[in-house]
Write a structure and sequence with these properties.
- By secondary structure, the chain is mostly helical.
- It has one domain.
- Helix content is about 60%, strand content about 5%.
- It contains 11 helices and 4 strands; from the N terminus they run αααααααααββααββ.
- It has a two-stranded antiparallel ribbon.
- α2 crosses α4 and α6 packs antiparallel against α7.
- The longest helix has about 35 residues.
- It is globular and about 75 Å long.
- The two termini are about 20 Å apart.
Length: about 325
């Protein structure tokens, strides 16, 4: 089982974490299976016998495939972070090209269905999530995103000029941002309601903290919203520019390439935005015991020395 800083290793400074997330969003890692994980663990258990390049590849496989709480590969494979680029390219393209209420509602519902499954697979596994909570999360997030997108589209249609364009093109992001708060907040409510495992540096669990759970969920919400902003806004306004002028405008020579061009913008934005924003928060996060419940403030490290900070798995 992979858990705690002692097992996962030091995540390093910000740009080191960005590099790790660039590897994690690589679609080539989506199809890695248990045999690959077994090989990687065998290499890491005897790393002195292997060249640095082989050890680095083994570390990449474990980081990209294995859930830190369970020690098992994230399954099914399409819910891994390595599938986030092709999945979100498709879903985001549907959202930014939707032109009717039914298309908007359908695109938002599909996006939240994927998000709910993705959040569930990559959550903190301290607590079991009952199916009813998963269903409630999906229902609330879908309803909020559809409602927000349709209301914003209606408001934009009543406006004129640049303000209407800005609101209409911002609607997909604003709807997704509102839904992400509900989706993650409800899906992972056990984490802030019942607490998550917190550990000493050596990986020894010292209890469960509701405050740590709230921080884990809040940081994941912030990362998801910050990642969605450049992706949906840049591609949506790029699509608007192509529709208004240049060779991609309706009836022009390259009009049929408008959607492929939007997909290229989406893919580039996802590959850049996800690592840069997700790396802002460590997966194995630390927190001072002074921020947690009173029972954590008198901990010792087993040798009589006080524990000043603890670790917890944030999730994605």
């Amino acid at each position: 089982m992979v858990s705690g800083p002692a097992a996962s290793g030091d995540e390093g400074p910000y740009w080191s974490r960005v590099k790790v997330f660039f590897k994690m969003v690589d679609p080539r890692n989506a199809l890695l299976g248990q045999s690959d994980v077994d090989w990687a663990r065998q290499v890491l258990s005897g790393r002195a016998e292997h060249p640095p390049s082989v050890v680095e590849r083994a570390q990449d496989i474990v980081q990209c495939v294995v859930h830190p709480d369970t020690g098992l590969p994230v399954s099914p494979f399409f819910l891994r972070l390595s599938c986030i680029v092709p999945a979100n390219m498709t879903l985001d393209c549907l959202m930014i090209t939707a032109s009717t209420p039914w298309q908007t509602a359908g695109a938002q519902a599909l996006n939240q269905c994927y998000n709910a499954a993705h959040y569930w697979a990559n959550r903190n596994h301290t607590n079991d999530e009952p199916p009813v909570r998963v269903a409630a999360s999906f229902t609330a997030a879908t309803a909020s995103s559809v409602w927000a997108a349709l209301r914003l589209q209606r408001a934009a249609s009543a406006m004129q000029g640049a303000a209407a364009v800005v609101l209409r093109r911002s609607a997909p992001f604003l709807a997704v941002a509102a839904a992400d708060v509900l989706n993650l907040g409800i899906m992972r409510s056990n984490e802030w309601a019942r607490g998550i495992a917190v550990k000493r540096r050596d990986g020894t669990e010292v209890g469960r903290s509701r405050r740590a759970g709230a921080m884990a969920v809040a940081s994941c919400v912030a990362a998801r919203v910050m990642a969605a902003a450049p992706v949906l806004l840049s591609s949506s306004f790029a699509l608007e520019a192509m529709e208004r002028a240049g060779p991609f405008r309706p009836g022009a020579a390259l009009a049929s390439l408008r959607v492929p061009a939007a997909l290229a913008v989406l893919g580039s934005a996802i590959v850049c935005a996800v690592p840069l924003t997700f790396a802002l928060f460590r997966r194995e996060a630390t927190v001072s015991v002074s921020w947690l419940e009173p029972e954590f403030r008198s901990l010792d490290d087993g040798n009589g020395l006080p524990v000043t900070q603890v670790w917890y798995h944030k999730g994605l």
